[in-house]
Backbone:
């Protein structure tokens, strides 16, 4: 039996470290890809919910128009906010446009209180119920997205995964945050 030289043993040990090191890098890379894809998927879920809300709004507006001829300002704000949301390009623009639309819809629902016939209309009731359900879905989708972003961002910032994240250009994801105007109570003037 032949005895291995010191260089051969060193080469074998180095090879073992290279194999395990490669497996570690590949495993972390794949984990980062999965986390980033989860963030993208959750963002897509927000888009689906926002689109559903946008699709409900024209029906709601047309139903309200039949009863309220002098509430044009709120209906215009809703249409403008909806258009802004459709044209939003990034997470911050979507967040701001979504907040504006939510505020306009809140003002509309306050105005509706002055129209008992509208409040009793079956189509209006069904639309407002669907809209309320959609708003709940949006809230859940935002929470799920922010949770995915938190997990992803924490992972790419922790050592030693941050080294791999930097090597492969994994960047932090933005949270879906409400704007300052979302914290304000809508003001409705009945004059």
Residues:
């Amino acid at each position: 039996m032949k005895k291995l030289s010191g260089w051969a043993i060193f080469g074998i040990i180095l090879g073992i470290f290279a194999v395990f090191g490669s497996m570690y890098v590949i495993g972390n890379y794949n984990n980062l890809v999965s986390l980033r894809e989860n963030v993208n998927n959750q963002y897509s879920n927000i888009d689906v919910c926002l689109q559903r809300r946008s699709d409900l709004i024209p029906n709601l507006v047309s139903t309200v128009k039949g009863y309220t001829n002098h509430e044009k300002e709120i209906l215009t704000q809703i249409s403008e906010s909806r258009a802004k949301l459709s044209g939003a390009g990034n997470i911050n623009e979507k967040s701001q446009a979504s907040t504006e639309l939510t505020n306009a819809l809140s003002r509309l629902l306050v105005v509706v209180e002055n129209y008992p016939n509208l409040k009793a209309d079956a189509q209006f009731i069904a639309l407002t119920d669907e809209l309320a359900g959609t708003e709940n879905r949006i809230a859940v989708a935002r929470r799920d997205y922010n949770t995915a972003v938190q997990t992803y961002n924490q992972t790419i910032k922790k050592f030693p995964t941050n080294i791999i994240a930097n090597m492969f250009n994994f960047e932090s994801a933005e949270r879906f945050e409400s704007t300052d105007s979302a914290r304000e109570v809508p003001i409705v003037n009945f004059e």
